[in-house]
Each structure stands twice: as structure tokens, then as C-alpha cells.
Amino acid sequence: MESWLRILFLFACLFPAFVECRIRRYNFNVMMKTTTRLCSSKPIATVNGKFPGPTIYAREGDNVLVNVVNHVKYNVSIHWHGVRQLRTGWSDGPAYITQCPIQPGQNYVYNFTITGQRGTLFWHAHILWLRATMHGAIVILPKLGVPYPFPKPDHEAVVVLAEWWKSDTEAVINQAIKSGLAPNVSDAHTINGHPGAISNCPSQGGYTLSVDPGKSYMLRVINAALNEELFFKIAGHKMTVVEVDATYVKPFKTGTIIIAPGQTTNVIVTADKGSGKYMVAASPFMDAPIAVDNVTATATLHYSGTLASSITTLTNTPPKNATPVANNFIDSLRSLNSKKYPAKVPKKVDHSLFFTVGLGINPCSSCKQGNGSRVVASINNVTFVMPTVAILQAHFFGIKGVYTTDFPQNPPFKFNYTGTPPTNLATMSGTKVHRLPYNATVQVVLQDTGIISPENHPIHLHGFNFFAVGKGIGNFNPKTDPNNFNLIDPVERNTIGVPSGGWVAIRFRADNPGVWFMHCHLEIHTTWGLKMAFLVDNGKGPNESLLPPPKDLPKC
Questions:
Q1: Where does the signal sequence lie (predicted)?
Q2: What's the pLDDT score for residue 9?
Q3: Which of 144, 245, 257, 471 could form a disulfide with 493 if both were Cys (CB 3.0 to 4.6 A apart)?
Q4: Can you give the pLDDT at residue 5?
């Protein structure tokens, strides 16, 4: 009887809406699964044989333990995207930054506590291009008895947006690295793993969200795509935005949201049409002359009682270069900044950093298709080189020769960043980090460059949330632009788009000791080297130091 009660309690703990548990345990078995999309099949790397992978449910304050067992030929690591990981950098997940990867046949238990966060985040592989199919939602509910700061929806649903290649994604990127050129774009976008109706594959099904008339639904929308920002809209329905990146915002209504890879957005939709079937669409946003997968993913909002044979009400997607539509959404985002959920924006800045982000061209004698050159990417002209020992381990154990702490806080040379590019497009290479004292307030201005092409870069910072205090087009002016910063209720995020041909300014407090990756969440740009890391020193208080590594930390 006692064992049955234990099993019942453990099962109930997987559904935190109904029970208060302090510990949530999950098993992630990484395995290959033959999957059919677009009328063709291929083996893909998955967690528990699912695409998208399983959803992790927890409450604010819960301790989460995920045992990841690697049954595939690739090295594996999992990143819990947006989870603060206070003092638990060993569980953050980026391979060779905070841990060595989990080798085939090995396992590792990620152990972290959800502190001061509630909302939608997601997890994904953080090595190679495995996150194309290895990703899933993290749903963090408020503490038991704590309401949402908006009317509670009748129902909730997770909506994961992604990309699909008919080819093996590892072969796609390996071929691109060999050639020195950009990889092939994906063959389709997906909504909860399905592209929807595709003209050259009429039997291809799509995701259906069943709704009851008059009920409200909170959609937890996640962009898990590798390389593309996406518009998301529902025919005939407005969406009320209530949260982004697991932080509450001032609610506003919109017909279209823009969501970059690495971002999440919670919207509430009221089923106010009474009956019918309505198209749900995810389509690409790209306001630069760069190739994208132009196939729109579709799903269906299906009212109960409506015949399956009924005609679906369609919607027009925005043009792929609809910058005004994207800006209208981005400019509407404001932190809730209530008494219970204040926006703690740093007013004073201890460390002011100016980072250029963009592309470059370096020599490559083996890159025949690239005529002896390869495309690279950089921050402050440094193309990051991944080490073979995890930087956090090298920091903690004092291992020399793995990294240097001389990442430049300004570009090594100035030029008209969004105008005519310099004649020399080469970058320097290195495994460089920028060191920060504990609890320092930091401002980073992220400036796009026009080298090769200006482009929107969704930059993700591990270990912290930050406030997006300003943005603009052209070159940042340090004398006049700060006068227009919003220091009252700027949106709080973990991933922010640097506008194409423009800049964005973020602020955060370095209150989390450890090594924290910052990189473009367009996977090709990360591969090309648009990444760096912050090393945050320990503080002096008892809870201001990085915890020791767990005994099962993977070895390189």
C-alpha cells in the first residue's frame, strides 16, 4: 500500500496545477526516431521519441531534476533556456561553456531550482545542430494560490514553432562548414511538429487546437526554430499579449506577434466566433537580402461542433520584410511594473560595454566553393573559438590555457557600422570572456554591422534576464541616444532582437556567479562564431558563490 501511495504522489507531482511539490523529476532518454514529414522519412534525434519533446511542468520555487541519458551517437547537452540557474551554472547546459557534453552511453542529472520566475520558457539541445528536433516547453506555474495578474484563462496550450529539413541537419551544417558558405534553408516551418497543408505533399496533416465557443485560451508560443524569426497569427481572432520570456507585460491586443528564435510569448485568445475553423499561421520575417524558408506553417483553430469538412477561414500573412509590423509589436512591449512584479531597472551603470555584432570573411584554403574564403561571425570582431574543456570547469578548478579574460569592451577599431564596410573584413579568433565583479550593474549596447549584410540578430544571454532600455536604427550615439532610454517599464527578456542596421541597449545586474554564454540564437551565426561569455566572480556573502560541481558532471 505504501509503494502505491508513493507512485501516486510521484505521478501527481508531474501535474503541478493540482498539487504542491517541491521536487519535480523527469527522465530524458535521447534516442533516434524515424519520423515522416513532407512525405519523406528520416531518423531524427529526439527526447523520449517525441518531436517536439516532452513539456516540463513546475511551479515557481520548485527543484527540478532531469536525468538525461544519451542513447545516440552524438555528444549531447541540454540547455534550460531562460532559467536563471542561480549559483547552479553546472546545470545551464551549453557544451564546452558550463559542462563537457554527455557522451554516448552516459547520463547526467541536471539539478536546478526555479527562483523568482513564472511563465513559459523552453529547453533545447545546446551542441551541434541537434536542437532542430531536440526541444520542448518549460511551463512554470505561479506558486500555489498565487493568481495570474490577468483574468485566468479557461484553458492553456503549448505552441512550439520550429523548422524542418528533409536532409539530416548535421549533414547540412557540415557541408556549409566545408564549403565556407551559408547552409541550405529549411524545407518547411512547423507548428507543434507539423507543417500543415503543403502543396507538394497533400497528405501532410497539421496541428489542431480544439476550442469551445466563449472560452478563453492561453497559448504559450515558443520559437524553437534554428535560424528564422516568425510572424504568428490566427485568422479572425485578436490575441492579448500577457507575457514574454517568462516575465509579465502590460497586456495589449494584436493581430500578429513577431517571435525570434529563443523567445517565448504568452497570448490569450477568446473563442468568440461561435463556430468554424480558422487558420493559424507561422511565416518568416526577414528584412535583409538573405535567403529564408518562405513556406508558411499552418494549423487549425477548430470550434467544437464544427464539421471537419467545413471550409477553413484563411488569413493573409505579413510580407516577409514587414518591418513596421514587427516594430509595432516590439514597441508595444512594456514590463508590467506592478507593486508585486516591479521592473528593477538598474539606474546607475557600473560597466558600460559596446558590442558590434555581425559577419566577416576569413581566409580558408580548403573552402573551394567559397573561393578560398569562409563566412564567419563575431562580436567586437572576435570570432569565438569553442574550447575542448568547459570554461566553467577551467574557471572553478584553475585550469590554465583554456580561455583568456581580455574580451574587448569596445570594438577594436571604429568604422561606420551601418554604412560602408571597411576594406578588411577579417576577424580575429579566440576563446575570450569578459570578467564582471559580483553584483555589478551592466549596460551592453549591441550594434548591428552592415558587413556582408545588415541583419536582425536575436541575442540570448544565459544566466540573467535583462531590460531592453532602448533601440534605434543606424549607429548608436552615446551622447544623445541615452536621453531616450526607458528606465521605468522597459520589457524584461532573456533574448532580444538587434534591429537590422540598428542597435539595442540592455541592462542587467551581474548577481549570478559563474560563466554565462551570450550568443546569437540564429544557429548558423553561433556556428560561425557570434558568441562570447561573461565570467562573473563570486561575491562575499554566504549565498553569493558558485556551488561546487556535482559528482556526475560529464568529463571531456
A1: 1-21
A2: 46
A3: 245
A4: 39
